[in-house]
Design goal:
The chain is mainly α. The chain contains 17 helices and no strands.
């Protein structure tokens, strides 16, 4: 019961803050133009690119460590702070000596201001890791709500005072500041002015490969925005960023929650020889795919009316981009369980090599296609996300001997259920309900209900894991 209530708290913390952020986001999008959004997006992209090189593997090592001391926590925090200072300094130094048309004085000032955010995030990210490890989900929920409210108030007030794009920049800093204050109160006794190279060295074998995996994953993601902004311009980046922000809401609410719960669950049983890891992998894949498929489909299906309702005509070019991101969200969500198993079973080094190869091939192709138009770039984006997913799927089989038949039954049962549910909803509601708001609500709720019904039937009819018996959506979430 405690585990379920904790997961529910984590879900609430992931659900409501992004919704509130989204309301403020819609409000700001109606006021600001695509170029302004593009400038903020480019500044944040540069900061996030720098953050890709932070030693996140040492942070993830805290998941694996059975006993954690205050000295270990403090060392990891100050190691992050030290590296972040060096990286931001090098970034500013680079653009001081090398001039680029897209790097304006405004963007430079934004980057310098956002450096404060990077420092606070060094503390917040380590504290978040401890909260997830110890299942302090209620603390995470409260922290997230506080940060979101403070950020939303900042944006609204500063836009009313005509600060323009600086409202969005300051809101990012406020999120990190309030997150730091709240979590520091919880972990202040474990945060010391202490640093040990010995601890860094002891953690190196596990942490360095994980740092490469996390770094290249984030670098891979941030490189997309950087390429759009530098090759297609800040206006196109504004359209791209609007769609990506909607995609990020899906990631924050659902995929990140699944990832954190998955990491926590896997780490508990990873060294237990009695646990059947192949069945655990299939279960986590099933939960992830079964939950995400109908939700992302609805976002794709209603993307045009959603954009027409929420945004003005100046953002119409973002609809097609968002549809591509819906496909990417499905691919990314399906790769979450296999990525976590690979890392916790010691395969981070192999995964990092694969990501380096994919990045080496894909980034030049992104640049080439982006120089033509946005659509070519988006097709290549989806393709290489799928390549990453397939690579990790092949790799995870080196560590877990799961049934490919069970794996593809998970995909087949849900996909067939969704097709039938959508067909039934089209037959029942299309052309009969003329109010767009009522139509979207009734269609969405009915599709989910029909989908669960069909999924239960097919999962019982076509046994996913015969040894378990009734392995269905309703039984697996109990």
């Amino acid at each position: 019961m405690k585990n379920k209530s904790s997961m529910f708290a984590l879900f609430i913390s992931k659900f409501f803050p992004p919704i509130l952020n989204f309301i403020v986001f819609v409000y700001s999008a109606r006021i600001l133009d695509p170029e302004s959004f593009g400038e903020v997006a480019l500044a944040l992209t540069l900061i996030f690119l720098v953050s890709s090189f932070l030693p996140t593997g040492w942070r993830d090592n805290l998941f694996k460590s059975e006993y954690i001391t205050s000295e270990m926590i403090s060392t990891v925090i100050w190691f992050h702070v030290l590296i972040s200072i060096i990286l931001v300094f090098l970034l500013l130094l680079f653009f001081y000596f090398f001039k680029f048309d897209f790097y304006t004085e405004t963007i430079n000032n934004m980057v310098m201001l956002l450096f404060v955010k990077v420092i606070f995030d060094c503390f917040v990210n380590v504290y978040n890791t401890l909260c997830v490890k110890y299942e302090f989900y209620f603390q995470l929920a409260i922290r997230t709500v506080i940060c979101t409210l403070s950020s939303a108030i900042t944006v609204y007030v500063m836009l009313q005072l005509d600060f323009g794009v600086w409202a969005l920049v300051c809101s990012q800093i406020i999120i990190s500041l309030f997150g730091f204050i709240f979590l520091y109160i919880k972990f202040r006794d474990q945060t010391l002015l202490f640093f040990s190279f010995g601890i860094i060295k002891d953690m190196y074998q596990f942490s360095m490969p994980v740092t490469f995996v996390n770094g290249f994953t984030n670098l891979f993601i941030q490189a997309e925005s950087f390429i759009v902004g530098s090759f297609l311009g800040v206006k196109e980046l504004g359209f791209f960023n609007l769609s990506k922000r909607l995609y990020d809401i899906i990631v924050d609410i659902f995929i990140s929650t699944i990832n954190e719960v998955s990491l926590s669950k896997i780490s508990k049983n990873i060294n237990d020889v009695k646990v059947d890891k192949s069945n655990e992998f299939i279960k986590l894949t099933a939960v992830t795919w079964w939950l995400m498929l109908p939700l992302i489909f609805l976002a794709y299906y209603f993307s045009e009316p959603m954009f027409n309702i929420l945004f003005t005509n100046k953002w119409v070019e973002s609809i097609k981009i968002f549809n591509f991101f819906c496909i990417i969200a499905l691919i990314v969500s399906l790769g979450v369980p296999q990525r976590n198993f690979i890392i916790l079973l010691g395969g981070a080094r192999h995964l990092s090599k694969i990501q380096v190869c994919v990045a080496t091939i894909s980034i030049p192709i992104y640049m080439t296609l982006a120089s033509y138009n946005m659509e070519y770039f988006l097709y290549s984006l989806v393709f290489f996300k799928f390549v990453n997913y397939m690579s990790s799927l092949i790799l995870v089989r080196r560590f877990i001997c799961f049934s490919t038949s069970s794996y593809f039954k998970v995909l087949f049962n849900s996909t067939l259920s969704l097709i039938l549910a959508n067909f039934l909803c089209e037959f029942l509601f299309t052309g009969f309900i003329h109010n767009i708001y009522i139509y979207i609500v009734i269609y969405s709720l009915s599709l989910i209900a029909f989908y669960i019904g069909f999924l239960e039937f097919f999962s019982r009819r076509f046994k996913i894991i015969p040894s378990i018996g009734n392995f269905t959506f309703l039984t697996i979430i109990k």
